[in-house]
Amino acid sequence: MRLRYTFVIDEHSRFILESRIFLRTILAGGVAPTDIVAQVTARSGEVGKRVAAQFGVRALDLPLGPDGAYCNKINQLFTLADEDFDVLVACDTDVAIMRPLDEMATPEFVRARRVDQENPPLAVLERIREYLGVPQEPELAAPTCCPEARTYAMNCNGGMLLIPRRFMQPLGETWLGYATRLTEQRHLLEQWVNHIDQVSWAFAMLKLALPFQELPLEYNFPTNLARKGIAPHTYARPVVLHYHRSLDRRGRLRPTGVGLVDESISEANRRLREGVGNSSKGSAGAMTGCNGRRVLAAAGVLLALATVAGALGAHTLKGHWAAQQLEVYETAVRYQFYHSLGLLGIGLALRTFNVGALRAAAVLVLVGIILFSGSLYALTLGAPRVMGAVTPLGGVALITGWMLFAYGAWRELGTTD
What we know:
Number of strands: 12
Distance between the termini: 29 Å
Structural class: alpha/beta
Largest sheet: 7 strands, mixed
CATH architecture of the largest domain: Alpha-Beta Complex
Number of domains: 2
CATH class of the largest domain: Alpha Beta
Strand content: 5-15%
Shape: elongated
Number of helices: 11
CATH superfamily of the largest domain: Spore Coat Polysaccharide Biosynthesis Protein SpsA, Chain A
């Protein structure tokens, strides 16, 4: 059985950390690098490709999905269409695979595991089915952690999907079509919009009636729910750990307190400590990108200069300058100090969420400080009055920078797998 394991690397720095975890654990488990493909979006630049190269796996360019986020994974079914293998193992990046999955793969059946919770509720699914015009009546089943609830039996967790190559084209086209239509009507999903890929998958499978077998729980085990509704003695030692960002500050999987699960987590963390491949940076190091370091360094320098300027104004210039001149100078110091503190906060945020909007915010705030406070300093030192025209430009840069920071923070903190 020839399997092809594939996962997505997008722009968020957490994808870099998670991709290192993915690659270290799966390679140490015995999967060959030639059987793994990193699907890299253009937004991640060259970073994602460098990570793949460090571990000796191939990287392919992945077009964005219709929503530019959760549905990016759908395009994995098209990028490998011309390659020779039997089953595609399409994974979320936040999984740790402990050994090859040949025993679970079959060219006859699509395989996945049912959702853990009622996400979205059955009423929402029925409303979407009416909108999409899917006439097939779905079979109902209980989510893993909610035995009293009901959902579609085909409502599956997207953490890992085993798709025979012969089904990739029809499933990909139907899945993408439904995802596109739902992206245009996101309100139908209400607060469950982050499940748009999962819901689109369910309706594509329902529409096509492809042969399906459910995966056992241990082949896509949600470590974040190990003690929240999963009945003990209903699963074997997990083979695929789906950790849903449940990591400690070192970039290791958090223990759950459930012995059987923690055995697999301990093994995964051992692999992370020992490392696999030629990576020169640790997993946790992926979260401390150079952008964050540079911004923190710039903020530190600006704060030091603001302190010096403030002391100079209080002890040397006071009594020598006119009140209006001193007021302009103090405004420059005050804005430099306040916004440099803010820049320090952006730098700290970049160490965890190294995304484009936050990087742009850092640049704009830095430029704004230089233009706003710098022009005011220049005016107090006798620069031509035309320099005053630069001050509002600095203010615009500061306002734009903080609006970008708000957007980036909202987008990143609201993004889940």
